[in-house]
Sequence to fold (599 residues):
Amino acid sequence: MLRRFRLEEPESVAEASELLGRFGDTAKVYAGGTELLLAMKEGLVQYERLINGKKIGLNQVSADNGTLKIGALCTHHELENSVLLQQRLPALVKLEQNVANVRVRQAGTIGGNLCFAEPHADPGTLLMALGATMVADKGASKREILADNFFVDAYETSLAADEVLTEIRVPTPGANRKCAYLKFGYLERPSVGVAIALSLNGVVSDVRIAVGCAGPAPKRVAEAETLLNGKSKDEVSRNLAQAGAIAAKASQAISDLHGAQDYKEHIVGVLLKRAFQAAVS
Amino acid sequence: MAIATRRHADTQTIPVSFTLNGRLQEIDVEPHELLLDMVRDRLGLTGAKRSCDVEVCGACTLLVDGRPVSACTTLAFEVRGRSVMTIEGLADNGKLHPLQESFIEHGGFQCGYCTPGMILASKALLDENPNPSEAELKHFMHGNICRCTGYKKIIESIMAAAKKMRAK
Amino acid sequence: MQFQKQVEILVPREKVWKFIWDVDRFIACVPGCKEAKTLEEGKRYAATMTEKVGPFKVEFPTTIEVLEREELTHIKAQASGADNKIGSRMKIDLDVNLRDQDNNTILSFVAGVDILGKLAALGHGIIKRKADQVLDEFAQAVKQKLEGEA
Fold:
């Protein structure tokens, strides 16, 4: 049983933002509920009001010149079946196909996933490597937050209390842009996730590396990127072990039921190597 | 048929009109009611089970608009305007669905606790993909857990049913 | 979970010792701790510990018992509390040591922290990190307060 709450069903972002501002932390945005309802069932959080985000119409996927726009209320199922995403961002489609299980994918939304900021989650890590931005909307005004700056800590994002995540924007990767996301886990949630994006034009350039799931929040690893930038494929392969070690430390891996710290760090290195190979093959 | 309950004047109720196993159902729910509780306790359909309660095991699987959901973690009002199928609605006037026949014929269950969820999930799979490879089947059914069978006979049951259903 | 912290405070040992027993000022150094009360001078104290991880908040009314005391050198204490709203209990075993370093003091402590109940569902790892942060902040706050007044 859940504790009683009132359901609000705003039909615009402005309305939702106003409700959030008015009711503060006694209210919460509710999308698919796949994380929120679990926390509520456990009694870890309580809300007097849930603000249903599904009547605002934020579940479209579109392309605007060179930018893919993903509605925050798109379910994982909608994303895995998006023709547009399959054409332009197959790495994200593959990620969405493998989120949790078929029932969670049916109800869960990408926005809910990002905003709940559970450490053991997939999309944030890849979106970081893709240079995505999150649109934080109050109705009257909005701002874009770079994915690198979206995740503050476990269960904490940089969204203000009255901001609604409405859209995720991803610059469409060009023809020479390669990316891959690999994850490892043996429990229901992933233990380690590594994403890499790079341009391949003779040499490897514009490398972006992100690690997630192992620590409290996904992290860009600029230090590892420097080791690979401007190098030939062979040189990169030789540097991958060291890049992996740097990424492992940057992941802030925590020992928990998903694995010991050193085990997770080791897996980060393995996945980075394999992600690079998957991206360039 | 509307199912009414007495409530305090201040309580928020949401009228939910939906199709349940092919028939129109009208019921008032409170926002916090869970779909699994509504189906089991108020509508008396106990085929769906509360097992892990955290959307991991699939024993509470129901089909909403033909797609599998975890009824344990779905708010009841979310089915308004939709069609819901429980295991009780699968047989056609007493005639078992090919999946049900197949599970019996191929020994796809032992204790039976996971079975309603297994059968509904596999129905959703076959509706979407009438000829799945074993890898596709396993991917789709990944979220339905069985403690008894070791899965081999579940896979055989589903594949056999799929073959039969394609032949029709 | 075990934590070990050490901080050098540029103030003589007597001052640090005195500060520890000044309950209000000492408790003020613990992040999220408020409403400190002396129940029995030198022996039992009460306070409310609050912590927040994302949307998850806890509030533990806590009792602190001083178990051992060696003037100017050593304190052994135990703090325990329960958050009935969330259904979690907390117990901290604290071993505090003071020693001289020239004219300054090395304050070191070992904390054994046990969290039981629903909070543990959040993940041992997250709690461990949070506890580590809190203890770090606490050690720094004690140092700042004492050095600030010097």
Q: What stands out?
A: The mean pLDDT of chain A is 96. The longest strand of chain A covers residues 192-201.
